[in-house]
Design brief:
The structure is a homotrimer. By secondary structure, chain A is of the alpha+beta class. Chain A folds into two domains: about 5-135, Rieske Iron-sulfur Protein (3-layer Sandwich); about 140-355, Naphthalene 1,2-dioxygenase Alpha Subunit, Chain A, domain 1 (Alpha-Beta Complex). The first copy, chain A, is about 20% helix and about 30% strand. Chain A has five helices and 17 strands. A seven-stranded antiparallel β-sheet of chain A has the order 11-17-16-15-14-13-12, covered by helices on one side. In chain A, strands 5-6-7-8 form a four-stranded antiparallel β-sheet, with no helix packed on it. In chain A, helix 1 (about 160-170) packs antiparallel against helix 5 (about 340-355). Chain A is globular, with a radius of gyration of 22 Å. Chains A, B, C: GO terms for molecular function: dioxygenase activity.
């Protein structure tokens, strides 16, 4: 089923974005059963909706006749009717009805459809021209390992290049300076040189430290909230823009891992809307107080607000000051904590160059 | 009187717009006896005003001294006084007074004046460098054949290239899908292949059909408002952007023309403000209930609202999605009803190329 | 102390602005003892603040690490702490502390500092790469020769190229046409050909005339407010964008100068924010009613309002109509009163060309 490669010749131009990758298109919960959901991804207008059997569909959100967005149209079962001249398209993007003239359907009347996978509470989309490579969609199973009251998901939007977000999460040395009580390490993390883990197109960084009292998000779930605890945090980036973060703390003599510590398993994912704006999702599964719906709602809101109110103003200001998405071309002064984000930028650059070379 | 060719050397560059044509500058009623009326036409700032004898005047709305718009100035009889340094210009654009120094008037102190013709309730303007060709100003006499309570005029503005409007009116197959009861043909028009009429730089299209009940704008004026009627509609485009539309219906055995049917004689005209914004006027003369001022006001408002609320959002969205004014370069899928608008686009392209070649 | 030349390689590109000059950065009164004051000057983001001893400091408002503006950070004594990763910089722009890793400070961790001089109620800044040339900072001592209730300062901002302001002040022939009673010469000034004074990179213009009643701002301070008086006004431009204006009137047989007349000593200074926006300051010292604080406040407000409400709309409109900062390239029609501003434009052009040639 190669229908998704017929439309959009303009995307054959060299892209500033990596395309051979699975991007998040939306939270599963954000695309309701009846919705015609529009979102621009990698500068492509995309229509997301669900078939009557619930399966998600993604079409290029642009009628091939006069280029009106199909998301402004109506549903007819699993088909979409363009609001301007009522051409009708099925979930594969094929035109199935024209009320015009003899009703003949031009062979070219086809909108591009994009492969989707719904997994771990997200709808993932494949935007490259090539057939989708399912080996590139990683497993984030721990997000689903537990009750719904132990996991939170949130969507954020910011006016900055998506790599600025990757920089922010891959270099956690900012947390003591940008954030308040909620996630301060009380100055313990900044002086550490993180331990790097370089894989095949992946980069990890890990910090371990002690602090008193323990970090705000975990302290109350430790035996003695005011007493020193050992902590760890680990971030693992994989293409295109996914960072899995695990953080934990303990007051016992156990290995520093989520199996033994009070902690949480998080996912930060971004998808560029354009060169200067980014969709950003955060999901977090904790291993404590998992059955408290009220705390669950409070927790995800607090994290959302910390990102939006504390990180975003700085990231957006930096992006405006840079006036380019090519951070490294500006000869920044780099410090020890930049090792991980800079390595990620180099991989991203290499992967994009490889795509454009093909 | 060649004064209008002396100013504005920058307009000698190749233009994206057809210039050898009469464009509407304003409704006659919109330029009051005292007004200094500013409007940008084909990206040229234009000042419109009326001499004391009522004759309309158009000047380049830019003082040749320091480039302030003259429309921000004051009138001195038939002359205009610049608001910045009080240079004064007459209705031919000639500087007639300078309060500076010796009062000597530089020979170059001249603003371009544009030929105007006031006709059929519109002020028409000639923006080309060449002498105006009066044979290109067509006759829309039927608009004036009847009482003032039988004709309506309205002005609209939209953020889209003007050719998107021509496409919309030359392909009426959208009416069943975009508009409500007011002008639906109940699906009868879309399946028809319009009859085309190709002239010397003109394109016409005509549809004939039956529907029950008759079309909303005419049904109540037919003998039996709920019974089938024969209908016709005809659109005739002529340069630069004028479409004369006639629509009628009858329940008798008579020829399908306005002489014999209940119907109306309309004019759609557009003038580009810029590449991405358009002035749009609509005038309609009906041959029924011609003496009812209240209905007349209701009718023109209903038509105005249908265009603005139903067509414009789609047209503006399509224009944004296209990101170019060259529709055909995007390889659109074309359907039978596109024959007329595409032929118009080809003529427009040819005429602009001819102008730029000279 | 050459620290200000190490940062900002991008400023070595050819500039549209003159750089070897002292620009006003701010009014002394506008930079409080605790403030981190941000202003864009010649398209450079600048942080202004005062050391604990009151001395003003100017730093490039961009951390060299991740380019966040330092003005969003915090003070630590005379140092500034970046809000993102807490790098700390002293008043010379040198990084003095990094909380990251070993605390080692990269040699390149340096922001550019700009030489400042605080004088005559203004903070003057040197933005060129070369060592500051103090001979280029002129003396405006008369502003300070008298009580504080005899002098007013005001800041204005407009969306136009800064040379449009110079044009406006160097050609006073507009005052009769643009302004109301406050500074009209009752048509006496426009017919005069000003007397020019061309110096080494300076241009002066002087007008002398009689009017009845005397000019609005001075009439009430003359012996007979309704009787003819002799007037003079003189404007003197010097680089980069400073115009010293003196105006006076007398009803006695004395020389036309400020020593003998009722009048005022003014300074108009502008600094480009960008190519299309300008910071504009006006200061005025009068030699009458010098001890009336209430009149003093009224006077500066009236002048401020006259500029903002009467000049600015015309200047901004002209700038938009020009669509370029190169006024002379548009072949304007010039009149006698343009002699001074056109000569200034030619000097500015010459000086910029000289800088770019080096």
């Amino acid at each position: 089923m190669n229908t998704h490669v017929k439309d959009m010749p303009q995307t054959k131009a060299k892209s500033h974005f990596m395309k051979r990758a699975w991007y998040v298109a939306a939270l599963s919960a954000d695309v309701g059963p009846e919705a015609l959901f529009h979102r621009r991804l990698l500068d492509i207008p995309v229509l997301l909706y669900r078939k009557q059997d619930g399966a998600p569909v993604a079409l290029h959100d642009r009628c091939p006749h006069r280029f009106v967005q199909l998301s402004a149209g109506k549903r007819n079962g699993d088909d979409i009717v363009c609001p301007y001249h009522a051409l009708e398209f099925n979930a594969a993007g094929k035109c199935t009805r024209s009320p015009h003239g003899t009703g003949a359907i031009p062979r070219a009347a086809q909108v591009r459809s994009f492969p989707l996978v719904e997994k771990h509470g997200f709808i993932w989309i494949w935007l490259a021209d090539e057939e989708p490579d399912h080996s590139l969609l990683l497993d984030y199973g721990p997000l689903e390992a537990g009750p719904p009251t132990g996991v939170g998901y949130t969507y954020m939007y910011l006016k900055a290049h998506y790599e600025m977000i990757i920089d922010n999460v891959m270099d956690l040395s900012h947390v003591d300076h940008v954030h308040g009580e909620i996630i301060t390490t009380r100055g313990q993390l900044s002086p550490l040189i993180p331990q790097l883990k370089e894989g095949d197109d992946t980069i990890g960084a890990r910090w371990e430290w002690k602090q008193t009292p323990p970090i705000g998000i975990l302290a109350n779930f430790l035996p003695e909230p005011d007493v020193e605890a050992r902590h760890f945090v680990e971030v693992n980036w994989s293409r295109p823009a996914n960072i899995q973060l695990t953080i934990g703390a303990t007051q016992d003599d156990v290995p520093l891992g989520l199996d033994h510590c009070v902690g949480q398993y998080d996912l930060h994912v971004t998808t560029p809307e354009t060169e200067t704006a980014t969709h950003y999702w955060f999901a977090t599964r904790r291993n404590h107080l998992e059955h408290d719906a009220e705390f669950n709602a409070f927790k995800i809101k607090a994290m959302h607000d910390a990102f939006v109110n504390e990180d975003f103003p700085l990231i957006e200001a930096a992006g405006q000051a840079m006036e380019t998405s090519d951070f490294l071309s500006l000869n920044p002064v780099l410090i020890s904590s930049d090792a991980a984000p800079v390595k990620v930028r180099r991989i991203v650059k290499k992967l994009i160059a490889e795509e454009n070379a093909d």
